[in-house]
């Protein structure tokens, strides 16, 4: 049972918003302006201190020239990744997903979607009714810590237990198509098969390298469905599963919007990690499979968070970035992600504050036992609170510092802490902007819709504005883009992909050829 692995379950029932068709429906454009969208907090009033703070935080400032250099590097690495031969040499792998843009299809039925994140597994029952979709029920399962779930086998056993509990709770019957959303780099061989490349976002499980997720999940289902201590277990629910699709989180986000908006070509996720996918002309992609290229588009999972692993971003990495990377769970990898992703923003802020404290720029005397000096004690949530604390006397910022054990601070200290948060977050937003501008320029269409999701993007008070305004500055002349937030959960996008896969499998083995021919056919499954 799920309780045997210490799973806490929370329930959440919600109805997904019905999809809407039409050009740029629901888009909110931010007015163009040359003025700063969000004025910086007041600088410390002591001139000597102000100068030192400005010098230190200057390391995080990115000029347009530096950002354009980043764009050049990113474009070069994208080209390497799209070409089969040098793909192994590219920082970003540009993985083909075998998922074509889905639009205008029909279908009717329920699907189960599992969303594997770095801290939680979420199970959702999604109902598709033609062009409309809704989430009937969701359950969230906190993933046990490493002591309980330290190997890949244990992780998938946990997933099987949670899935069984979900099916039993909902009293589901018949064969159930299943889609698994994976927020970690995977190499696809088809929609229904992929191979884990590596763990990211400080997540690491032992026991396998380059694991075939389809096989791992099937083995876990088989183990949990057979017996316990020699006695047959009542886990026959798991035998109802029909594994239909493995989907990247950015890809499922893109499809959730692109299904009803053909102008949506880019999916961007700024969450604990950082990644993007986009719609590419298949003729530009070198692949082992020379399948029918009709339609001539496929979604590419860039895995752009890995950019910089070959040293190409060292020209603007700070000492704090390098320190964080050195003690991370995967040194030398995911370099861009470690400057943008929410898993790391708070830690970079903490390292800067620690350095300022040690050099007498902050707080006066602080004991070494203070929580400020402890790894990961400043979360992205703390940074978001501080960034939104715009009114004197900055009580929310004071509350964060109190929670870190800082017992004495001045008004200047509060202003300096807010300046540090702004500098780190502004850099992250500008790096995201440069990445987005590179993708829009690469697609090179007059107008492109971009769907953006993720905790950092959705909850930070200034990230969206900063990213938008900087992207405008970096775009090629004549190009326009529109930012859109998801109108439904990404589980809906994964369900769409799984439904198309099921439709294809009813007729023949899933191959890129089959998907191309059947993605838009009617879907009818139990």
Write the layout of secondary structure elements.
Layout: E1 10-12, H1 47-57, H2 64-82, E2 95-96, E3 107-116, E4 120-129, E5 132-142, H3 152-170, E6 176-182, E7 186-190, E8 193-196, H4 213-226, E9 227-228, E10 231-232, E11 241-248, H5 249-258, E12 264-270, E13 274-281, E14 297-301, H6 319-326, H7 337-340, H8 342-358, H9 380-387, H10 395-403, H11 411-443, E15 447-453, H12 455-459, H13 463-474, E16 480-484, H14 490-505, H15 512-518, E17 523-524
Parallel strand pairs: 3-6, 3-17, 6-11, 12-15, 15-16
Antiparallel strand pairs: 1-5, 2-14, 3-4, 4-5, 7-8, 9-10, 12-13, 13-14
Helix pairs in contact: 2-11, 3-4, 5-14, 8-9, 8-11, 11-13, 14-15
Overall description:
The chain is an alpha/beta fold and 526 residues long. It has a domain at 2-18 and 95-304 and 486-524: Nucleotidyltransferase, domain 5. 37% of the residues lie in helices and 19% in strands. It has helices at 47-57, 64-82, 152-170, 213-226, 249-258, 319-326, 337-340, 342-358, 380-387, 395-403, 411-443, 455-459, 463-474, 490-505, 512-518, and strands at residues 10-12, 95-96, 107-116, 120-129, 132-142, 176-182, 186-190, 193-196, 227-228, 231-232, 241-248, 264-270, 274-281, 297-301, 447-453, 480-484, 523-524. The strands form four sheets. Strands 1, 3, 4, 5, 6, 11 and 17 form a seven-stranded mixed β-sheet that branches. Strands 2-14-13-12-15-16 form a six-stranded mixed β-sheet, sandwiched between helices. Strands 7-8 form a two-stranded antiparallel sheet. A hairpin with a 2-residue loop joins strand 9 and strand 10 (231-232). Residues 1-39, 227-234, 290-294 and 506-526 have low confidence and may be disordered.
């Amino acid at each position: 049972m799920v309780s045997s692995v210490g799973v806490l379950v929370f329930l959440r029932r919600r109805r997904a918003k019905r999809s809407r068709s039409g050009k740029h429906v629901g888009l909110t454009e931010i007015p163009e302006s040359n003025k700063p969208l969000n004025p910086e907090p007041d600088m410390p009033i002591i001139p000597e201190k102000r100068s030192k703070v400005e010098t230190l935080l200057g390391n995080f400032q990115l000029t347009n020239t530096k950002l354009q250099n980043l764009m050049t590097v990113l474009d070069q690495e994208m080209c390497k990744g799209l070409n089969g031969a040098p793909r192994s040499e590219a920082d970003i792998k540009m993985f083909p997903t075998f998922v074509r843009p889905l639009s205008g299809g029909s279908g009717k039925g329920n699907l189960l979607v599992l969303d594997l994140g770095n801290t939680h597994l979420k199970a959702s029952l999604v109902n598709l009714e033609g062009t409309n979709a809704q989430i009937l029920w969701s359950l969230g399962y906190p993933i046990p810590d490493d002591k309980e779930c330290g190997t890949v086998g244990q992780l998938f056993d946990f997933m099987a237990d949670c899935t069984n509990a979900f099916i039993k709770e909902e009293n589901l019957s018949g064969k159930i198509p299943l889609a698994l959303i994976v927020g970690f780099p995977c190499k696809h061989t088809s929609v229904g098969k992929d191979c884990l490349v590596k763990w990211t976002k400080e997540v690491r499980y032992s026991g396998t390298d380059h694991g075939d997720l389809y096989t791992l999940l099937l083995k876990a289902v088989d183990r949990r469905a057979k017996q316990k201590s020699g006695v047959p277990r009542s886990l026959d629910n798991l035998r109802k599963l029909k594994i239909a699709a493995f989907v990247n989180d950015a890809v499922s986000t893109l499809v959730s919007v692109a299904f009803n908006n053909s102008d949506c070509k880019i999916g961007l996720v700024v969450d604990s990690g950082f990644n993007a996918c986009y719609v590419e002309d298949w003729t530009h992609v070198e692949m082992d499979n020379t399948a029918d290229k009709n339609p001539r588009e496929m979604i590419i999972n860039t895995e752009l968070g890995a950019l910089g692993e070959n040293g190409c971003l060292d020209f603007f990495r700070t000492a704090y970035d390098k320190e964080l990377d050195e003690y991370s769970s995967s040194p030398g990898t995911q370099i861009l992600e470690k400057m943008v992703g929410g898993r790391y923003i708070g830690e970079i802020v903490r390292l800067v504050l620690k350095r300022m404290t040690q050099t007498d720029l902050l707080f006066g005397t602080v004991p070494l036992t203070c929580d400020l000096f402890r790894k990961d004690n400043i979360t992205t949530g703390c940074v978001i609170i501080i960034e939104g604390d715009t009114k004197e006397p900055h009580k929310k910022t004071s509350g964060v510092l109190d929670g870190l054990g800082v017992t004495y601070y001045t008004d200047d200290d509060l202003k300096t802490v807010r300046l540090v948060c702004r500098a780190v977050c502004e850099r992250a937003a500008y790096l995201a902007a440069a990445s987005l501008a590179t993708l829009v320029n690469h697609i090179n269409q007059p107008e492109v819709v971009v769907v953006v999701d993720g905790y950092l993007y959705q909850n930070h008070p200034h990230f969206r504005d900063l990213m938008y305004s900087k992207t405008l500055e970096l775009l090629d002349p004549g190009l326009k883009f529109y930012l859109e937030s998801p109108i439904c959960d990404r589980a809906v996008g994964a369900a769409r992909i799984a439904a198309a896969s099921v439709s294809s499998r009813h007729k023949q083995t899933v191959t890129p050829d089959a998907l191309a021919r059947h993605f838009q056919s009617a879907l009818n499954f139990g």
